[in-house]
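INSTRUCTION: Work out how this chain folds

Token vocabulary: learned, describes local backbone geometry

RECORD BEGINS BELOW THIS LINE
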Amino acid sequence: MITVVIPVHNRAQLIARAITSVVSQTLPAHEIVVIDDGSTDHTAEVVNDLTKSLSNLRLIPLKENVGAAEARNIGIEKARGDLIAFLDSDDVWYPEKLNKQVKEFKASKNIVAVFCGLVATNSGTGRCSYHIPKPKIDLVDLYHGNLLTTMSCALISKKTLLDIGGFDVSLPPCEDWDLFIRLAEVGKISVVQETLVEQPMHQGPRISRDKQRVLAGFDAVFDKIYARISDPHLMKRVRGSYEMRMADIYSSDYCCEPVRAMWHVCKGLLLAPSRGSLRSVRRVAKASLKNSIFRRT
């Protein structure tokens, strides 16, 4: 059985689109559990209206906003399925998503989670950004960054989620990345080599674009990673990756502090020199320049 867990907060204009993408799956989910995380708009009304025609759709309203991590944990507890797929309320799935992930689960032993590729789309500019992680992701891969991107790409064993204690509610954002690390500690993570999730750009708020929360989240997760590492060589490489991730944040359009971005990227290059680090220097410099010009105009 597959349970789909959708946490939502004030997304009345988007939640129906997300649910429709689940209903359109070629392999149907047994149940769809929407956790309304203290919405103050018409989100609950939209979902309740859909329950009239969808017998497998359940709405669990929360009286106050507890955050995505705790909302997902509640969804895990309430789920009846042995596999749980997560979907953010502003993302959509392509029809073959669940079918191809379940096939991957059945094809290999000791798999605790199956992911897939993601495309971020901008209808205003027509631009698309594709991300497909490599077929197998291990623990050390995740020490360097969140290669698996978002919960919307995940199909995870419920038993494993319960065994590792679900999401860490003390984290700001990045609770998904922390969960991925703990999944990799107990089993194999596989990735379907296709783009099966779409992340359309919209004007509403995204936690992933809140500068202070993102910075706090990265610091908290990297501190937890450092505590796991005893190998000095690996520690140096991971600290280099931290500097590169900071450089990416400070060169982004929602932050854009070019001097700090270049300071971090140079530190990363000194800590872990490689061809990849050199490519990061070029990427950060290009992004900093582009976003600086965009802000001036």
In short: The first helix runs from residue 15 to 23. The mean pLDDT is 93. Residues 229-296 form one domain.
